[in-house]
Structures
1.
Amino acid sequence: MRLWSLHPSILDRAALVACWREGLLAQKVLAGGTRGYTRHPQLERFRACARPDDAIGHYLARLHDEATARGYRFDLTRVLAPDAAAPGIPVTSGQLDYELEHLRRKVTARDAAWLPRLDDPARAAPSFILAAGGIESWERP
């Protein structure tokens, strides 16, 4: 499961679609709708929020916004809390840098024409607020 901390506007098609699919799975896990992935480390940051369902809802709704802007048809009715306020989940600059390099490696292999769109420095997705620090403790490099 890869729930990107990077701004959805820099995700290539494959990353955006996969993040949507995996975000929906994360929503199901956080809502108690499945027994799989319950201990996935990337869910720690959503669980740390006062309202994890709202946090993942905001995250998914912003992915939907980006997909819609690109002409994709993601089904917003699948998001349980699409109107949730921004949760302000902290994400470190080191984590964003790590994810940007990870995305660059993937994009180099599957869609090199997308590389110029990858911002440097990396921008955080709207659900996150930037904090100083290295790679997050939940990341599995």
2.
Amino acid sequence: MVAKIKTGRSILGAINYNEHKVRLGKAELILAQGYLKEPLDLSFSDKVNRLTDLTKRNERTQVNALHVSLNFAVSERLDKWTLQQIADEYMEGLGFGMQPYLVYQHYDAGHPHLHLVSTNIKPDGERISFHLLANKASEQSRKQVELNYGLVKAEDQGKAQHNIKSLSLEQVAYGKSETKQAITNVVSEVLRTYKFTSIPEFNAVLNAFNVTADRGSKESRMYEKNGLVYWALDGKGSKIGVPIKASSIYGKPTLKTLEGRFALNEVLRKSFKEQIKHTIDNLLSKPFGKTEFQLKLKEQNIEAIFRHSEDGRLYGVTFVDHSAKAVFNGSDLGKSYSANSLSQIFAQSTESTKPGQSADPSGIYHFPDNTGITGNNNFNSGGAFLEALYQDEKQDMAAISRLQQRKRKKKRRGHSL
């Protein structure tokens, strides 16, 4: 059993996340410990107020929300009563046995898992410390539960633990679902599972789900103040609707929060670097053109996103490994994986288009739908997607291209005289 703990400042946000899944038919409230009503009889207000009433008894404590996920092996099909007992015993070992808490069973992934929501504020106003909660109390409780119920141990799952299927990610459909909640679901899951080290790398994943993180133009007040908002995107990759402030989203994925993740992700993704390089090397040993190269990588669940200047020159490439949940710029992998090196390799091979593929004049490959990426992902490497992703960089390259064109025109006029 794998236990993952998240603490925060919003009881409402944690409950909202789970209740959204319930409304979609992808989750069910199976236990409401410490409540006066049965789960089916609880209103949304009942669920929230029971916990927020406790937080009001200690307003000095800002981080007062506990959100835990308990993940079981794919082979473990546990009945509802057993899951309720496991939740109770785990929370008891965690030191939250006397606290009210909600237990949701989720059905939106390939493995059985629970989400538990509670608060660390006791009825007398004292707080339960979150310090070392994940590393000490949770580990001890998790191991005891595994022993009591004969569960697959987290240590024995090895790579299977890493490969636990993510929560189902769905594209934001503007106008068809509550925008803020839909954006929150995508941002929270991408932030939790993918290892990226910059805003453009973060957007390399977000854009595929019709979401983008935006700092504003470099001349804007928002950019100057290190602000960040999230937009929904339409089918063409254009911003639509009203932007959502990062600070108003559950978990507060602000620029400061993301920058803290960048340093951590730099370390976490290192173990996957040689793996993706090996995959790329195997393909580059054969005479593949750019389109074929992208398609072959796609078969390995790796997205190659190429960036071109207005005159068609390849100047950047980003690799997104959806199995390892790791994002790398080509230059981060090494000089031989940079856009310049790849351009030289592709130039030696004749570009071809296979049935079911389509290439536009810029050489960007458009993948057909349902090409096998884990979950409900539908990644599109189309021009609109890249336009939103690398807008600043593309503008710089366009400016350089225009400057070069003007110089060539002046030179020709000089010769004509």
